[in-house]
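note to self: dont lose this again. the chain is below, predicted strucutre after it. 376 aa total, dont forget to put it in the shared folder this time
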Amino acid sequence: MDDIMNKSENMHENNPKKTVIEAIKDFFARDLVQYILKRILMFIPTLFLISVLVFFVIQLPPGDFVTSHIAKLATEGEIVDAAAAQAMREDYGLDLPMWQQYVKWVKDIIWTSSDSTYYRLYESHHNWKYSFAYGRDVWDVVDDRLGLTILVTAIIMIFQYAVSLPIAVYASTHQYSVGDYVSSIIGFLGTAIPNFILAIILMYLSYVWTGNANVGLFSQDMLVNGISLANFGDFLKRMIIPIIVIGTSGTCGIIRSVRAQMLDEVSKQYVLTARAKGVSERTIVMKYCFRAAINPTVSGLGGVLSSLFSGSTVTAMVLNMQIQGPVLFEALKVQDMYLAGAIVMVQAVLVVIGILFADIALAFLDPRIRYSGGGR
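---
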């Protein structure tokens, strides 16, 4: 027996890589790791299809940026002849067939060589092209407001779930009570009233009560000196109206969905059994019923992100919010296809990442979900 143990120890000492390789294989053999890897690999075809749809849909309207620019100059009394217009199209690469423009756009985003003019100017291997409307590099325009857009979206999403989930739990455990009816009415009002009208009403009330309509996310002091501890309180005050306006529009759907799921769960047999065994009502509701009822809401996280990114454009314009929505609207209006495509692609990437997090959360929340694709 001692000889066998010594031989086994010698084999491990002589071949240490085998243990490491086996550990790596064991790690990647885990169900959740395989699930995440499959989802990440699905990013590539998903983003490819989104990029194709985005690029070609943006170019569906007749004409291009040069056409829009010439029309704008004509309203100002300046006439551009056909030769000059053709020269502009050649400069911007708009004279190429649509599929060639798409291939060049994607290829340059993935990798731009070090000897290119773009790399010498911006020191980046990812060329998002030139914004016709802003006269700047596309990524510079996107990057100016991307961080603030993500921050505002995250705050609004936290507000939605923080408000709607407790209301939904209360409404389901107090069905047909006064609180249930009141929460339903408030939720439906938030959905029924158009966001821009609610924004105007709140701006008016803010001006009447405080003397300041709180339009925009930044005061003049913030624009000059940036956000600091001294003016951070002002920034939070300016966030109140956007949070209420955009946040309340999505609370009704979450409340109704979670409430319906909770009512279905509390009537199941395992709840009656748990009560008969003396399990506390709080444990039954929060540990079992709520955990099962939250699944549809978590799975819809990607849709919530998408609606917050793209659905708040009009509200952002009314409130003068410095986020991506108004920039995307302006890019589409003047057919600045590279800028519009970049914004939509960035939003698509963030939404796909949000869906990945939602799927992983579902795998943890509900062990009944077979994320490995096989039986257990």
